């Protein structure tokens, strides 16, 4: 493909996802701020080249990174909640422990990216490329994963509760095991499973263990009819009869 064709293809892709090409011109002052402070909340970094940058723990909440190149960058534990990364390149990026809650990640390329323990809950991930990505213990609850491609991805213990998986490839919540893009039924907690979050079962007390134990219970004897009434000795040597209404309990 010639350079001209590549440019045309990229232009069509931008139009298809509804991004204004003029919006890809990032603010140089914002880029300098990010490099200097590792923090740029609400910045405009659209189309910026941040490939292989060390951005661990960076604070980019609500930032605009439409079409940005973040391939090979270190974004571990970065804060990207509510950010717009539509069409961004995040291949082979380190996003372990990063927070992208409610972020716009439409058409993002996450191929071969490490997303272990990443928070992607309620993110818009329509048509996102997760091929061969690592998503162990990743939070995808409530995310829009329509048409996403998980072929070859690893999802051990990830949550897809309330997620939209319509048209998604390589993942099937009805067959819990995810193994190189092939789903096979298995036990809920088997290695490689995608767990639907559930409330813990109610604690039922053990009735036998909780029941009180009665020990050394005093015995009461019944006096057979005709043997008279029980007597007690009173001062003076006389005996006094007692009522005979004793019963065995």
Automatic annotation (TrEMBL):
Keywords: Signal. Residues 1-25 form the signal peptide. Residues 168-249 are annotated as: Disordered. This is Pentapeptide repeat-containing protein. Pfam families: Pentapeptide. PANTHER family: BTB_POZ DOMAIN-CONTAINING PROTEIN KCTD9. It comes from Chamaesiphon polymorphus CCALA 037. InterPro entries: 5peptide_repeat, Pentapeptide-BTB/POZ_domain. Residues 174-198 have a biased composition (Polar residues).
């Amino acid at each position: 493909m010639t350079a001209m064709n590549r440019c045309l293809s990229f232009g069509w892709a931008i139009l298809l996802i509804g991004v204004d090409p003029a919006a890809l011109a990032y603010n140089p002052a914002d880029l300098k701020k990010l490099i200097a402070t590792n923090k740029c909340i609400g910045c405009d970094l659209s189309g910026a080249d941040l490939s292989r940058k060390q951005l661990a723990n960076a604070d980019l909440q609500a930032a605009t990174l439409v079409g940005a190149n973040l391939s090979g960058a270190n974004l571990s534990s970065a804060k990207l909640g509510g950010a717009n990364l539509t069409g961004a390149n995040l291949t082979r990026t380190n996003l372990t422990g990063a927070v992208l809650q409610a972020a716009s990640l439409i058409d993002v390329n996450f191929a071969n990216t490490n997303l272990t323990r990443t928070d992607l809950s309620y993110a818009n991930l329509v048509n996102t490329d997760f091929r061969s990505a690592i998503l162990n213990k990743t939070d995808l609850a409530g995310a829009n994963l329509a048409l996403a491609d998980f072929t070859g991805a690893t999802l051990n213990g990830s949550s897809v509760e309330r997620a939209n998986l319509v048209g998604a490839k390589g993942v099937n919540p009805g067959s819990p095991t995810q193994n190189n893009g092939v789903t096979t039924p298995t036990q809920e907690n088997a290695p490689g499973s995608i767990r639907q979050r559930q409330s813990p079962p109610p604690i039922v007390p053990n009735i036998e263990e909780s029941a009180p134990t009665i020990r050394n219970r005093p015995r009461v004897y019944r006096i057979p009819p005709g043997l008279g009434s029980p007597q007690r000795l009173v001062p003076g040597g006389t005996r006094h009869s007692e009522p005979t209404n004793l019963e065995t309990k």
